[in-house]
Amino acid sequence: MLCDICKKNEATIHIKEIHDGKVKSTNLCASCAAEKEKNGGLDALGFNLGEMLLNLGSLAAGKTEAAAIEPDSGKTVPVPAAVLPPCPVCGWTVEKIGQSGGRLGCPACYKAFTPLINEVLTRVQRGLVHIGKRPRNAAGGDVAVLTFEVGEAKRELQEHISREEYELAAVCRDRIRQLQARLDESRQGGGENGQH
Amino acid sequence: MDSIDKLMRSPVSFLADAGPDEDIAISSRIRLARNLAGRPFPDAASDEVLHEICDKVGAAASESGALGCPGCFSFVPELMGELDREILFERRLASRDFLNRKCGTRLLVRSDESSSIMVNEEDHLRMQTLKPGFQLKAVWEAINQLDDELSNRLEYAFDEKLGYLTSCPTNVGTGMRASVMLHLPGLVLSGLIGATIQGVNKLNLAVRGISGEGSDNRGNLFQISNQSTLGQSEMQIIDRLESVIVQIIEHEKLSRRKLLERDKYGFFDWVGRSYGILRYSYKLTGEEALNALSGLRTGVDLHMFTKVNVRMVNELFRSIAPAHLQKQAGRELSPVERDITRATLCREKLAGR
Ligand SMILES: [Zn+2]
Ligand SMILES: [Zn+2]
Which domains does chain B carry? Predict the structure, then answer.
């Protein structure tokens, strides 16, 4: 098997990762692996995001064949029907994003380039939906924050139970009850004073 | 604008305080990427917008008392001299990308350097919190609070599905990168570091060696961090990272024990020679010094010295860096002069002066 980077030497280092249940393998020769180690760390995920976006962008523009994009897995990449227009807010194009190393122009770019972004996220992230913290002033405000806090507290409760820390679990259970009460209150529209 | 000299004179919490597992874990760090809603990301923003963002974030920090502001340090890197900017880099308060920007940057730093915010790096806000030793949960509590204080005054770019929107999709979601700096001489000396790194990579975590003066050497320091930011909550990411680091620390302890069993005098010799190099050299390259400091730190962990402690070693790790040496000397130094100054500093420190 040839090295994924230089495509010349025999690959001796094989890295397998699991993403959303799918196995992705990277095969490198010793010198490319060492080179990778020197440049910005040994992350097996090392890739050029800008290049990836450009490839995906030219795919969208019909310039590249689908086979060139996903050679090893044979996965079919969805081909957007037309060339993606620039972001209506900042004016950045797919090409510009590619040139800036995969950085976007503004928050609205996430909407403007959704098909590309989803493709990138599928490759680099462990999921496609945020389940973490929310800002206090986000849309949905208190309900969202409290829902998150209840979720976290429940997770903590499970942890205490599995470690047989029953006193801490009891404290945690009380907190969940309080948070849940506040959440119910916020849901009924009394969200104004639900923050603290 | 504050002066670098004042920053260098104030006590640094992560160097002065003790932390859990500090024999192997040097520090725990979390950074959060945040952007303001309705504004282009820094790469696409005009100078005017960049300055407006600096002002907004500065005001939010002052009003909320985040970072101890207005008692915090506020730097404008693009107006600073090169040496002073290097100091910020060596103290890990600023990234190269940030310092290379020509306009509209601001750096806010808590006086003990435990928390800081880069304004207009790749994202509008890059905040970080740092604590000594291995304590990611405590770091998360601190940065979560800092983030809350700011978000009460700033409207963040946030999407119901994608979470915090960042300039680069590799950071979207939590916008969080959590990392722990580990000192792993045992794994390096027993040749197990490669396998360890591969194992960690398989778990989708990143390992970075900490390089010295542009050279390949790392003083056996490695930083382990999460790679993905979307699809898991902050606590899930931290839990996973923690469980892996617990194992690495165990492996490091085991390989140190094995090295001692197998070749006790060889191991002691390495530590002793490291001490000798630092104590008696008159010319020390950055690479040599980092390697020797790694040996010295290991000796401290083995209780081989009475007058050297972890904090002294951590401080030396920092003060032997090129910009710090030059700042200390009060002038620019040639590479040879740096090596001489570095050796002098180490000699005097170990002589207890
Ligand atoms: Zn190769
Ligand atoms: Zn845009």
Answer: 1-21+32-173 (3.30.590.10), 255-350 (no CATH)
